[in-house]
Design goal:
About 70% of the residues lie in helices and about 0% in strands. The protein is mainly α. It has one domain (about 1-165, about 230-265). The longest helix has 28 residues, at about 240-265. About 45% of the residues are buried.
């Protein structure tokens, strides 16, 4: 059910790239993109220092995380940050949902997606479990966004497990992905790795046969990453298995127009690699 990721990921991602989300974080005292990003994603964990976030976020250079944490908690408490991220996301989604999701369809989508969320297993899923424990909002659009966020972070936890199982570090995963479809300039800057870090990771991947001398992923590297994605999908299947194929297809039908609108509102290129919404399984 990989296509369900393409439904909820763009809806979640407005919290990073929309002007409404940025404005909400700034009102809370979190000026600058990265303060809002690190505080917003880490807030469900409480006022944590950098170390657990380095582990949970995986692909960021440790010094980049340490630049934001724990400083952000002196600017906005986790509770205030959670309020800001929800308010900003809903403000971003509201005009998009007005044209794509009627109140009746929204209510049905919320019922279906929350049934999927209820089937999530939190064990071993740090960010997924933390978001699962966030109190459910009252407003339907806020409930939808929180559900997509919980699904997204739960899936991300599984993706990290798959990368670790494949013997990849955070930097190596970024270098490999850059050799496939996302360029080095974007990814290295966005994740904070130094030239030395990058070269060391590339050397390991080349020795493994996953990267060529030009820094492009080899067939073996592409196959290895494809297997990581397959495992990620397998580990993320529980919600859709729980609600069944019919309800999953109905949820995809309900979310598709909003997911497309969100995807079109996001930057054309991001380090997240946001999937294009697809209703095909």
């Amino acid at each position: 059910m990989r296509y369900m990721w393409s439904m909820f990921e763009p809806i979640h991602d407005v919290t990073y790239f929309s002007p409404q989300a940025r404005a909400a974080f700034e009102v809370a005292g979190l000026r600058g993109f990265w303060r809002g990003y690190f505080a917003g994603r880490a807030a469900p964990l409480g006022p944590v220092p950098a170390a657990p976030v380095v582990a949970a976020f995986f692909s960021f250079a440790p010094h980049m995380v340490a630049r934001a944490l724990p400083d952000v908690w002196s600017r906005a408490t986790p509770e205030r940050t959670l309020e800001a991220r929800q308010a900003g996301a809903v403000d971003a989604l509201r005009p998009l949902a007005e044209d794509t999701l009627s109140k009746e369809r929204l209510a049905e989508a919320v019922e279906l997606i929350e049934a999927g969320v209820a089937a999530l297993e939190p064990s071993g899923r740090v960010l997924g479990a933390a978001n699962l424990a966030v109190p459910r909002p009252d407003e339907p659009l806020a409930r939808l966004w929180q559900a997509t966020t919980t699904l997204r972070e739960h899936r991300g936890d599984g993706h990290i497990a798959a990368l670790v199982t494949a013997g990849l570090t955070g930097c190596q995963a970024i270098v490999l992905r850059s050799g496939m479809d996302l360029g080095r300039e974007l990814m290295q800057q966005a994740r904070g790795w130094s030239d030395d870090d990058w070269s060391a990771a590339a050397a390991v991947l080349a020795t493994r046969g996953w990267l060529d001398e030009a820094g492009r992923a080899t067939g073996a590297g592409i196959d290895g990453y494809r297997r990581v994605e397959e495992i990620t999908d397998e580990l993320a299947a529980a919600p859709w298995d729980a609600i069944g194929a019919g309800s999953t297809a109905r949820l995809a039908d309900l979310l598709y127009p909003l997911a497309v609108a969100c995807h079109q509102a996001l930057p054309a290129v991001t380090p997240i690699g946001v999937p294009v919404p697809s209703v095909r399984g």
